[in-house]
Amino acid sequence: MKRTLVLILFGCLVSAPARAQSIDPAPPPPNHAPASDALITDAFPDGGVPTYSSTYAPAYSATDPAGYRGGNLVETPCPAAAADCPNRCTITVDSLWLDRNYNSHNFLGQTVAAPFGAPVNTLYPSGAVLHPGARLQLTYLLTDELAVEGIYFGLQQWTSSNSITADPLLGILAFSPYTQSDKLLGGFDQSLGYSYSSRLNNGEINFRAPVARRGRWTRDNLLGIRYIQFNESFNLNGQDAFFNVTENVNTHTSNSMLGTQIGTALRTNWDKWQLNMTGKAGLFTNFISERVSNLNSTGVTAGFPPGFVPISTGRTSTDVAGVLDFSAIATYRINNNFALRGGYQLLYLAGVALGSQQMAGFSHGGDVFLHGPSAGLELSH
Predict the structure, then answer these.
(1) Distances (CA, A) of 22 to 74, 138, 259
(2) pLDDT per residue over 205-217, tens digit each?
(3) 8 Å CB contact between 236 and 176
């Protein structure tokens, strides 16, 4: 996938400034000039098809109001005044801020008041953490009807932590269903807490082709291959000062999702603005790795408390994961080669192994919702 991105970038850098242009195109028949509410598809009496309009090509032009090119296409220099000549290559660089929402229903433990065991406080994974990352997209116009795009985004490192505090003077002790020392000692007299980290990397190659136009809107179909890596590390920690005991339960999960995706995109131009809305979906093969260990605990290193059972186990498996992706991006064109852009992205992953869900037994039935804004620059030629 990295090699394909490099090849697309190389094609952008070495492509000549020539553009595909009609030679003596015949005037379009009257039925080729659509009414604002008419739907135009790729079925025409003369075999014409919608052309792929690049980021900077306007939805209509004075020379080709229907947005199509007929006749024989040859590589000739594109006249400076020909507004309907699309840029062959587009490079976008964005700062992407994604929010990772945690499953607040995953119970981790609680503090209780002795002797009746009435709950005082509870512990759940929590927090919505907005973290910056990067997105790079390279788009190359192969023909007037087909474009290839390579997309990478990632580098986000989400972290979250929380704890609940015990008070032995008031008889308040902490317990978790996933720790041993609290049961052997009668509870943690200091605290019970967790730390959580997640990391995402995404790479994809897609082919886009326009299939319909209604008024100023154009619809593209999309087909591609995608790879997503989503890894998590989780630590549950219990502290007892009276017996000088520390227990750590550590989990690590790795999800490597690979598969094909389909999608559709809507885009429109007005003045110097363009709006792109893209939806993608796919079923992926998920190569999963899961590990659980409590070897960094007093019960292992000092042999106390008695009855503590060391755990260090892991497994690998393969299953199916689902991916849904939606983005909306607005672009403001400074000139024919430079633009500013901003938007919002939503990404949903289902059938993944999460770090906080491994302590009661290996599980890869979790889901993750990521969303957030983006802003960046766009270059084309």
Answers:
(1) 7, 26, 39
(2) 999 999 988 888 9
(3) yes
- Kindly give, in sequence order, each residue whose CB lies less than 8 Å from that of residue 256, ignoring residues fewer than 6 positions away: 227, 228, 229, 286, 287, 288
pLDDT digits (tens, 9 = 90+) for 150-170: 999 998 889 989 999 999 999
Cα distance between residue 126 and residue 160, in whole Å: 7
The pLDDT score that the predictor gives to residue 33 is 42
Neighbours of 46 (CB within 10 A): 10
Nearest to 239 by CA among 320, 184, 298, 280: 298
Sorting pLDDT into bands at 50, 70 and 90, what band is 257? very high
Q: What angle do CA 256, 261, 263 make, to 5 degrees?
A: 140
Alpha helices in the chain (DSSP H): 2-14, 181-185, 298-301
pLDDT of residue 293: 96
Burial class (CB in 10 A: 0-12, 13-18, 19+), 359: buried
Strand order across the 172-175 sheet: 118-123, 109-113, 172-175
In this prediction the pTM is: 0.78
Q: Is the pLDDT of residue 119 over 90?
A: no
> Do 287 and 253 touch, CB atoms closer than 8 A?
no
Distances (CA, A) of 89 to 9, 226, 320, 330, 345: 9, 21, 35, 18, 23
Tokens of 332: 């403001």
Residue from 80, 79, 57, 96 nearest 268 by CA: 57
3-state per-residue secondary structure call for 228-283? EEEEEEEEEEEEECCCCEEEEEEEEEEEEEEEEEEEEEEEEEECCEEEEEEEEEEE
> Cα separation of 90 and 211, whole Å?
21
